[in-house]
Design brief:
Shape: globular
Order of helices and strands: HEHEEHEEEEEEEEEEHH
Number of strands: 13
Number of domains: 1
Helix content: 10-25%
Radius of gyration: 17 Å
CATH class: Mainly Beta
CATH architecture: Sandwich
Distance between the termini: 37 Å
Number of helices: 5
């Protein structure tokens, strides 16, 4: 059962700014179990053959060390990451923010895990999550709840947000370094974003940040001596259809090794 309930002030802040910090949604014992499971599945490259493990910021060659390893559906490979106190609290938070009257229940859970290796884990460039959507013809209604499994700092890559950016449409994106072999996205220079307004959100292990799909966000490279482990929950309501033939051309041109592996399954 959930042990966290947002205040009216927290909900107001989220809807006005497009992000929110919550100090703690887990506990030390649970976090220790999750760290062990998290490290195990990354060491195993769990899900690689089916396209769920890949380098988010690199070209993902088999003989090259990943700059920013990611695993989709991590709970599929480690039961310790499922049905946790953290997930129960994340679900309750998402319900309060997306549909507080309970007329529709949020769906989701542990959606992906991003690992920044010590000393050289790559930055995750500025982007909006909805830019990854395979269905640009719909408006997404979701939140991502980002939880570090150790302290998250500016040195190792905590979350940073542009306040109010969730009120914009999706900006032009491209593959990182304009390389269609790379899965990760970044806003283009032509988008003209003023990054000077960014707000950094350092967290203790088990704290979270929450943001909807249009909030611009970023995490820096890991310059610290410890790995930076982040587990991301995603919860959503039914998408809403659009009537403007919106397209995301940056997704139509991708030629990633991850997609090639998934196509062989």
């Amino acid at each position: 059962m959930s042990t966290v309930k947002l205040t009216d002030e927290q909900q107001r802040f989220f809807h006005e700014n497009g992000f929110l910090e919550v100090p703690q949604i887990s506990n030390p014992d649970e976090l220790a179990r999750m760290r062990r499971a998290y490290d195990r599945i990354f060491s195993q490259k769990a899900g690689r053959e089916e396209g769920n493990e890949f380098d988010l910021a690199g070209t993902d060659e088999e003989d090259k060390e990943a700059a920013l390893p990611q695993i989709l559906q991590p709970g599929k490979y480690a039961e310790e990451l499922r049905d946790t106190q953290a997930e129960a609290n994340a679900r309750a938070i998402a319900q309060q923010l997306l549909c507080p009257d309970g007329s529709e229940e949020v769906r989701g859970g542990p959606a992906h895990a991003i690992f920044k290796p010590a000393h050289h884990g790559a930055a995750t460039p500025w982007h909006q999550d909805e830019a990854y959507s395979p269905h640009p013809e719909n408006d997404s209604r979701n939140v991502s709840i980002w939880m570090p499994l150790q302290e998250a700092t500016l040195e190792n890559g905590c979350m940073q947000f542009i306040p109010g950016s969730h009120l914009q449409e999706i900006l032009p994106h491209r593959s990182i370094n304009n390389d269609p072999r790379i899965h990760g996205l970044e806003v283009t220079p032509e988008a003209g974003v003023d990054f000077s307004t960014a707000v950094a959100c350092p967290l203790q292990a088990g704290g979270v940040t929450i943001h909807p799909g249009r909030t611009l966000h970023y995490t820096g490279a890991n310059h610290s001596a410890i790995p930076r482990r982040a587990l991301i929950f995603m919860f959503s309501l039914s998408s809403l259809p659009r009537n403007d033939n919106r397209r995301f051309p940056w997704n139509e041109t991708k030629q990633t090794a991850r997609l090639e592996r998934a196509a062989k399954q």
